[in-house]
Design goal:
Distance between the termini: 113 Å
Order of helices and strands: HEHEEHEEHH
Radius of gyration: 30 Å
Number of helices: 5
Strand order of the largest sheet: 2-3-5
């Protein structure tokens, strides 16, 4: 009798074990799929997502970058390089500006270091290329026609740097100090 009960018990367990995967498959057959078809469906990323780097413009549509090189100094992988120049009206700008996105780790330290809010990270992350040399972006590829996250910020307006005027001639601005007067 015990031998017969053991055989029936094993047969029920075996049949249950055999049918269980079919039951799981049948349950999932009528569920809504959770897979997102990436190229067709693009999830909206949060505004603080760190992706492609852009160079923004001030409200007067001038380049914000003054080529101070703080972003390249803050970059842990040294993927940012530039050459500074000064226009005839005294305004500094980047003669050339280059970012190697093949090396960039999108840490955002360059954005934090920038005093003019010129360099900003965007949520755009689709930059794959077959050739790594195509991941080196030049200034004309980085420069956008808007102010980015803070469109009303104007570095030259807040810093009081003379643009077209001599230093010390702005409203409420003290004349430039002579550093030699500090010597004993």
């Amino acid at each position: 009798m015990d031998e017969r009960n053991g055989f029936l018990k094993n047969m029920v367990q075996g049949t249950t074990g055999l049918m269980e995967p079919f039951w799981v498959t049948l349950k999932h057959l009528f569920r809504k799929p959770i897979t997102e078809q990436y190229p067709e469906y693009k999830r909206e990323l949060p505004p603080r997502a760190r992706g492609r780097i852009v160079l923004t413009r001030s409200p007067d549509k001038e380049e914000r970058c003054v080529a101070c090189q703080l972003c390249s100094a803050a970059c842990p992988v040294s993927c940012i390089s530039m050459q500074s120049a000064v226009r005839q009206d005294g305004r500094r700008y980047a003669e050339w500006f280059r970012i190697n996105f093949g090396r960039c780790i999108f840490c955002g330290l360059c954005e934090e270091a920038c005093p003019t809010l010129a360099i900003q990270l965007t949520p755009d992350f689709e930059m794959s290329e077959d050739d790594p040399l195509k991941l080196i972006y030049e200034k004309h590829q980085l420069l956008v026609d808007h102010g980015g996250k803070d469109p009303d910020y104007d570095f030259y307006k807040h810093a009081g740097v003379a643009v077209g005027r001599e230093p010390g001639t702005h409203d409420n601005e003290h004349p430039a100090a002579n550093p030699k007067t500090n010597f004993p």
